[in-house]
Design a protein that fits this description.
Blueprint: H1 7-34, E1 35-37, H2 53-62, E2 68-70, H3 72-84, H4 95-110, H5 125-130, H6 135-144, H7 158-174
Helix pairs in contact: 1-3, 4-7, 6-7
């Protein structure tokens, strides 16, 4: 590939580290845009012009009990940002750690992406596509096992399962 694969883990780590800061900044700027205090008017110096029935109805909808003006489009954008935030930030993937785990745990049956137990179900890119296996499916198989393959969910931490699953997909893309 034209993009150096060794840079990908560093880019992922930077993305996960910078994302909360970016989201907080966007949320703050959006909050400033959707709610602002109503200016206080002195009735004696600046009497307000009389409102038409349409203006009066519109003003009533846009002002809540606290006297803040609400801009619906900005409020929707702020709520959309809140819903887009992940529940917990994902940790950066460590392919080097994934390689160590693969070498120590998986290589007995899957040396060089092969499968010594069920030869037709290798870890090669074409085979994984044929069976609809992606990184999520690899994590599920490593954690809970499948058919003859034992479950490693009790032996490996969730981060280790994440690392080895991403390592397997990365190696299948390279052709082992």
């Amino acid at each position: 590939p034209c993009f150096p694969v060794r840079i990908i883990p560093a880019l992922l780590a930077m993305t996960f580290l910078c994302r909360p800061l970016l989201m907080a900044t966007l949320l703050w700027r959006t909050c400033e845009g959707f709610a602002s205090p109503m200016p206080q008017r002195s009735i004696a110096t600046h009497p307000a012009p009389p409102l038409t029935p349409v203006q009066s109805e519109d003003a009533g909808r846009r002002q809540n009990l606290l006297g803040w003006s609400i801009r619906p489009l900005a409020l929707g954008a702020a709520l959309g940002l809140l819903l887009a935030l992940p529940v917990r930030p994902a940790a950066a993937v460590d392919l080097a750690d994934g390689e160590k785990i693969f070498t120590n745990v998986c290589v007995a049956c899957h040396a060089a992406g092969s499968n010594l137990v069920v030869p037709e179900k290798t870890l090669q890119k074409e085979t994984l596509k044929k069976y609809g296996v992606d990184v999520v499916k690899v994590k599920a198989i490593v954690s809970g096992g499948q058919n003859i393959m034992p479950a490693f969910g009790q032996l490996l931490s969730p981060q280790q399962i994440e690392d080895v699953s991403n390592y397997v997909i990365a190696q299948s893309e390279k052709g082992w």
